[in-house]
Amino acid sequence: MGVIKEGKVSGLIPSNEGFAVHYPGYPSSTSRAIQTLGGTESILKARSSQSNKLELYFRPEDPYSHPVSGELRSCHNMRAFHQMQAFS
Questions:
Q1: Which has fewest Cβ within 10 Å: 30, 51, 68, 85?
Q2: Closest CA to 54 of 18, 21, 19
Q3: Is 55 domain-assigned?
Q4: Quick check: is 85 in a domain?
Q5: Number of folded domains that form the chain
Q6: Domain that holds residue 49
Q7: Cβ atoms of residues 53 and 46 within 8 Å
Q8: Is 50 among the domain residues?
Q9: For 11-70, what is each residue's pLDDT tens digit?
Q10: N- to C-terminal Cα distance for the chain?
Q11: Assigned domain for 42 exists
């Protein structure tokens, strides 16, 4: 649990794993971004398989659209900072 001391929060972050996808563009919605990546099944499959390739289809409804491939990279030094402001 976090502790608040002198206006600052400190504590341990749980050891759960997470992952992020760096999407190369500005999708119209989150669901559209997931659809162009092949759906949640494809994202989870790419994360858990040995090949670790994720394909992005800019036009998933077009059968002639060729995918752009991405690879999984591990990162062990990610930090998250959160700053809160008090409103009076």
A1: 85
A2: 21
A3: yes
A4: no
A5: 1
A6: 27-74
A7: yes
A8: yes
A9: 776 666 677 788 888 888 999 999 999 899 888 888 887 777 888 998 989 999 899 988
A10: 27
A11: yes
